Amino acid sequence: MQFNLADVFETVASAVPDRVALTYEDENLTYAQLEAEANRTANLLAASGVGHGDHVALFLKNSLEHVTSILGLVKIRAVPINVNYRYTPAELEYIFTNSDSAAVVVELPEHQRTLAGLLESCPLIRTVFVVGETVDELRTAAAARGVALVDFAETRNQPATGEFASRSGDDLYVLYTGGTTGYPKGVMWRQDDFFRKPLSGGNPYGDQPRQDLAEVAAAAKEFPELAFLIAAPLMHGAALYSLFTFFTLGARVVLRRDFDPAKVVESIERDRVQVILIVGDGMGLPLVDEMERRKDEVDMSSLFSITSGGAIWSTSVRNRMLAVKPDLLLRDNFGASESGNDGAFTIDEAGNLRMPPSPNMIVVDERFEQLPAGSGDVGYIARIGNVPLGYYKDEEKTARTFPTRPDGTRISVLGDMGRVEADGTIVFLGRGSQCINTGGEKVFAEEVEAALHAHPSIADALVVGAPDERMGQQVAAVVAVYPDAPELTLEEVQEHCRKTLARYKAPRILVVVDEVKRTPAGKADYRWASSMASS
């Protein structure tokens, strides 16, 4: 059968209605209660004109309303659009317009004010749902544009049940991720493929995917009442995948507004948390600091696993976690917005990241021919099976990232490099493109270089990732300045970049050189730039 995310959630809610589904900031909702809130949200969205196929941007931090908006939208066959609330106005304008969002759900006053300044340049937005009080700036801007403002609190006046149209496995879920030009790309997942790949077919701890909704219901009833704490923001793919995965299992999701390591550690004891999801060392380092400080005063006996995805998770941080609790199962997930859950890394004695053999992953050459095991050749790691349809409104990048092999098989090739050992194990060698991963956020060299080149004193610049103990990598800029230009400072460069880029994209390291080295063809020499940044 074809799976739909709303059908799956409703099936689980019917199977385990009295089990706690969501703990948000110490408030508990059972599956029956969360289903009711999601229905109220769906009914409000529909009553306000949101319909099948409409894209709705979620300009939200973690909240109950964020969860019910996601569920409510898929219930009415609309498409949630995740929005990174750290983006600058220029980046937000791009995502609102590129995604063709017809509506926006927004909460924080500062986010409302930013949205108010963008409404004039986002003509497709016709409705804004406001969580909490509406600021005057948004009221004025909406009135000028004829945009309807809807109080999200009106959900309380909507019925807790719904007569929704039949859904399909072909319904879309669009997940925005960073792009090679610096702007995000909308990854288009069929919901059936979404269920089978990112959600592991509803069975992440087993080998056989669920075959139908009856199996989903039966498995949820049998699954232990475990608590999974998602420390990452729902705007990120890793958190979103985890949210749906744990709901599919009938588990309890523990969600906090922001990542606060002290509150996470306290939640382990209070909520009897069994699994924590983090994003690499950016969360892992402050978390283990807090675990070490509180190990003699907080009961962590319930915790048996910490899982990471989306960023570098160093051996040193893992070892410190194991020193606090030696029986922890540590799982380093490998995946992406464009591929879903690909499995878990292991680390060998040489520090190499290794993936066990999988029928859904191969290594190919530049012609997308599969490299034989044990050849020693380095190629591109490719995912096969349930892959996305492509990038929203970008046929060129779709063709490049999701090519079709000569035998008709579609694959996902993201630039991850690797080789295949004789036993089929894939050794991960790194990202071929110049993508900097700082605490789970993607920063692409080209976009920062473009911002640097706009500085009046900078003649040339290259941007690379430099190692960082907590964030995995930090952005480093190697620049040459024009003759007679005033002395350049890191603070000045950061201030300049933050005019057009999110704060986390601004360089943390500045190296000034006489000349930026390039190849004879004028291409960037990133190896040289990396050596300069680390010297």
Strand order of the largest sheet: 2-1-11-10-12-13-14-15-16-21-20-18-17
Q: What is the gyration radius calculated from CA atoms?
A: 23 Å
Helix content: 25-40%
Q: What global shape is seen?
A: globular
**Mean pLDDT score:** 91
Low-confidence stretches: none
CATH class categorisation of one domain: Alpha Beta
Main sheet makeup: 13 strands, mixed
What portion of residues belong to β-strands? 25-35%
Q: Determine the CATH topology of one domain.
A: Rossmann fold
**Backbone structural class:** alpha/beta
Number of helices: 16
Cα end-to-end separation: 57 Å
Count of β-strands: 26
| CATH architecture annotation of one domain | 3-Layer(aba) Sandwich
Description of the molecule:
- It is built from 16 helices and 26 strands.
- With 535 residues, it is α/β, with parallel strands linked by helices.
- Among the domains are: 31-199, Rossmann fold, CATH 3.40.50; 358-385 and 401-431, Luciferase, Domain 3 (Luciferase, domain 3); 437-534, 2-Layer Sandwich (GMP Synthetase, Chain A, domain 3).
- The strands form five sheets. Strands 2-1-11-10-12-13-14-15-16-21-20-18-17 form a 13-stranded mixed β-sheet.
- Helix 15 links the parallel strand 25 and strand 26.
- The longest helix has 17 residues, at 31-47.
- It is globular and about 70 Å long.
- It starts with a helix and ends with a helix.
- 48% of the residues are buried.
- The mean pLDDT is 91.
- Pfam families: AMP-binding, AMP-binding_C.
- It comes from Rhodococcus daqingensis.
